[in-house]
Amino acid sequence: MNLRRRTLLGMAGAVAAGPLWTTAAAAADTPIVKPVPPEDFTVLGTNAELRWDSPHPVGDIVPASRFFVRNHTATPLLDARTWRLEITGDGLRGGPVTVTYDDLLRLPSETITAAIECAGNGRSFFTSQQGQTVAGTAWRLGAIGVARWRGVPLATLLHRAGLARDAVDVLPEGLDADYVAGGVNLGRVRRPLPVAKALDDVLVAYEMNGEPLPPDHGFPARLVVPGWIGIASIKWLGRIQVSRTPLDSPWDTQYYRLTGPDYSPDGVLVTRQNTKSVFELPWRATLAADREHVLRGRSWSGSGGIGRVEVSTDDGRTWRRAEFVGSGGGWQRWTLRWRPRPGEHTMRARAVDRHGVAQPDTEPYNAQGYLFGAVVRHPVVAV
Ligand SMILES: Nc1nc2c(c(=O)[nH]1)N[C@H]1C(S)=C(S)[C@@H](COP(=O)(O)O)O[C@H]1N2
Ligand SMILES: [Mo]
């Protein structure tokens, strides 16, 4: 077969003048490069989640230094000057196309505010609140972040690469190490994306909050797939296969499916994120009794927005509407005034999304603990 090598801008061999990360891993033995101090992060294996009870609250935009990290293996340190993105496959009208970092920076860019949230965010509550055993990282509610992402629409890259009319799937793949699970090498982290979503609002991002992507978040380029579970947003992008027939990977056959007694044997593919809420308070926070407090929290949804948030300070007997703070890009921050009586209290926050769908009281079980969207019961003590 005669593989034609083409470049997207017809500039073979262009050298990126962009930044080069030379940072060595902050400490040996951590697969994460940036510092993850214990007051701001909970480290869970190769991952680190944001702590909502940190003494340093985050605003609408999460700085890169505070953004959760989900690594299947370890953050690779890539060189933008030698980095290449290859677009390939029978879903292109011509041969494969190579994109350099310089090509990316020169193409028309877009900037979006979008959340990236792990499908397993909230997983630990299947166990602590519903008494169910599930497999996977025991996240609380900090496997989410919202950032401003700048990059090139994937649609632009695909069209310039010669997307065929009958292409159905794209398969983006990371440049991090192969993922080995239970002694089986599953290869590069990758997950197919339907062409319809790829052409809709997906970004090949090279900036996060106005700076080049940090190594942990995908430098030099990653996908940002708005509204979809985090695994769709492949970091350290190295290759995109475009296909006229449906594609598969272990990340849509073995992982990121809802399986269990309530589901058919094949399970249900997870794509879109659900709705969640969190109090920005320590677990079993201690508050001064008989004084007014302004409780802070936030709610978010993969369905596109939050309509209203109701909060109960008496474990669900009575509910009050929370007051919205800020514009609600990415998520909706809110506050609630409350004067607790002395004693133990259970707080609940329940968001209703833009379509009128409320968070449920319980989440139906699935074996891998994805999409925990039930109302979380948050204990508080007033003294
Ligand atoms: N190449 C690669 N891409 C990846 C992953 C990974 O391990 N390798 N993890 C995925 C998962 S499961 C999530 S939730 C998000 C997390 O993005 P973040 O680490 O920037 O927060 O990246 C996704 N993209
Ligand atoms: Mo994830």
Describe the structure using short key phrases.
383 residues; mainly beta; Sulfite Oxidase, Chain A, domain 2; Immunoglobulin-like; 2 domains; six-stranded mixed β-sheet; five-stranded antiparallel β-sheet; globular; binds the ligand Nc1nc2c(c(=O)[nH]1)N[C@H]1C(S)=C(S)[C@@H](COP(=O)(O)O)O[C@H]1N2; binds molybdenum atom
If you had to describe this structure to a student in words, what would you say it looks like?
This protein is mainly beta. It folds into two domains: about 5-270, Oxidoreductase, molybdopterin-binding domain (Sulfite Oxidase, Chain A, domain 2), CATH 3.90.420; about 275-380, Immunoglobulin-like (Sandwich), CATH 2.60.40.650. About 10% of the residues lie in helices and about 30% in strands. It has five helices and 26 strands. It has helices at about 100-105, 125-130, 155-160, 195-200, 250-255, and strands at about 5, 40-45, 45-50, 85-90, 95-100, 110-115, 145-155, 170-175, 180, 185, 195, 205-210, 210, 220-225, 235-245, 255-260, 270, 275-280, 285, 295-300, 305-310, 320, 325, 330-340, 345-355, 375-380. The strands form seven sheets. It has a six-stranded mixed β-sheet. Strands 6, 7, 12, 13 and 14 form a five-stranded antiparallel β-sheet that branches. A hairpin with a 7-residue loop joins strand 21 and strand 22. The longest helix is centred in the middle third of the chain and has 8 residues, at about 155-160. The protein is globular, with a radius of gyration of 22 Å. Mean pLDDT is about 95; it is low at about 10-30. The structure holds the ligand Nc1nc2c(c(=O)[nH]1)N[C@H]1C(S)=C(S)[C@@H](COP(=O)(O)O)O[C@H]1N2 and molybdenum atom. The site of molybdenum atom (MO) has 6 residues, from loops. Molybdenum atom binds near residues 119 and 230.
